[in-house]
Amino acid sequence: MKEIKIHNLKFNSKDKKYSLVICEKPNVANRIAIALGTSQVKKVKIKGNIVFDVLTKDNARYVILSSKGHLYGLKDPNKRDKIFPIFDIYWAPKFTSHNKNSKNLIELIRRFAKDTDNFIHACDYDQEGELIGYNILELVCEKAYSNSHRAKLPTLTSDDINKSFITLERTNRNMAYAGMFRHLLDYIYGINFSMAVSRAIKIKNRYSYLTVGRVQSPTLKFIVDRDLQINYFIPIPFWRIKAHFRKDDEVFVFFFEKKRINTLKQVNYIIDKCRGKNGIINNINISNEYVKPLHPFNIGDLQKESFRLFKYSPVYTLSIAENLYLKALISYPRTNSQILPVSINYRKILNDLEKISDPYKKYVTILLNQNKLSPNNGIKYDPAHPAIYPTGIKPVNLNSSEIKVYDLIVKRFFATFGQPAIFKKTKIDIIVDDNFLFNKELKNILLKGWIEFYSSFYNYTENSVEYSDLQIGDTLINIDISKDSELTEPPIYFNYSSLLSKMELEEMGTKSTRGNIIELLIRRNYVSINNNKINSTDLGMYLIDFMEKNLPKIISTNLTRTLEHYLSDIERGITDRIFILNSIITDLIDSMHYIQKIESVSPIEHQLVRSKNLILIGACPVCKKGKFQIIRSKKTKKRFISCTDYFSDSCTASAPLPQQGLIKNTSKICKECNWPILNVFYPTKRYSKNFCININCPTKLI
Questions:
Q1: Domain of 365?
Q2: Active-site option among 332, 493, 496, 542
Q3: Residue 332 appears among annotated catalytic residues
Q4: Is the peptide bond before 85 cis (omega within 30 degrees of 0)?
Q5: Is residue 697 part of a domain?
Q6: Confidence (pTM)
């Protein structure tokens, strides 16, 4: 990037006719000014806001301003904090007593808009960026959006900025409408259902405003459902059989062909039949496995890989990627694309990257010596932006986190151009006692291919024992045979990476907002994160329980997925947004009408932590109204049974539980007292039993 001195000079908007450029971020405005300007760029600070006055070598003049994000937000004109539903909302300046600069900035933009009729929208090219510019051009610049031009900035290099301003396009009104509609939906669903749920649920001994969202709530349900699966998982024992065989001085380990044997009786039978019996190799199968290079990064893949390697949260990774973009080191990161177009000039980028470091130079040399330079593009496509790629500009003054993420992006870029990796797979079968098959599978790398470039981040293991001397027909001496006992594993807790994958699979949120949704759930105390495991809290569980009973449609993935499809259709201009909005509001009114009839539910007892009271184990035989639930006390850490009406003082039915072992509902009722029968399983003892939870039951099973 060329060096240009920026001078603080007196600004005069009457000097020469100019184009008014609206950017989203101050750093972008600064880079555009440097890229477009000649030897001097005027920089003026007016009421806390920077204005760039740029004269190009072609004698074109630009005045460049930054919006610093959204200057307008949705508001209710009636300010009815306790009246809902709310639908008559409008866009209003985001003025607060702590944010006077927004007002000054709007006045400044309006001032410069009066002296020009040429507007350039240079905010980020996505729904949010398009909406930011749309609101400014329509509401501040007196409906200038239709007559404005669009600058698309794939990177912030001088070449891309100049190319973008030479090839200005028309603004994309449908993209702006999609961004507007997204905010509208989030506001309508969020504020109305949050108020309704907060009114219905009273939290004991504290005031709380519970928030509900069309993406937030289904995501919370993912976490709650996973936690319940884990906590009520009953492990099942199984066994594996392994045998040690000797040939000459070498000892080899083989496993019985059936990897999981469910009965100890069958295990003992196989061991008895095979003990002391030699094995004969009856098959050796050797094949090559070709592993294609990794796809280029989109933002979701980058966030997941960054968490796997560095344990960075999605929001933190996105902030780092945006900093790298603003420093012109990588392309625009908020993309869903896994495709690198030919137009980005792979060879030029590689030639620039080799100048950054010796390791990079080594990798570039390998790639440029290949017969073909073609990326292994994925299938995900984003019409607005390509996959994330480095620009080739040499990084300077990066912090440790930025260095790690930048290096990851560069090496992923290298890897996607690499050759397939080749692994040699060997499977050896041994027959024991003419009837029992044991085998061993081996995997060794023959050609690293793309792994050469990504070896810092890609782990693979090779076999240290050499099996190449074994031949079909060889007899191996059986020196030992044994069994290993294991337990089936429950599902694993969500972490940042797996939850992002789940949200992406279910089409919850957007590429840019999924990380923010997770952080919002943490801030709201609906979930907590410990040792990178994301768990639901009591409050989060209680909220999902309430919504499953009263607002199941709002936490449905189908609803959110359908709305995301609507937004995509609006952006592509193939659906009527007004018709969709009317149908959504009609449906929302029906749900609001129902929830307003609900009387306040039982207070949340905050002495209980991780109560898991969403699992109901049978009807209460005492009050005949409630249902039994499993509770764990925060104070004593002990678990017990209570009626769902226990904390409203309308039913005192409760019962102790064994404090060890895993509890499972049998769905059976005791014939003596009509109380539920549960099962307790002790994994270490491989022992389980059924028991009636009633301590006064005549059967006395506890």
A1: 299-416
A2: 332
A3: yes
A4: yes
A5: no
A6: 0.80
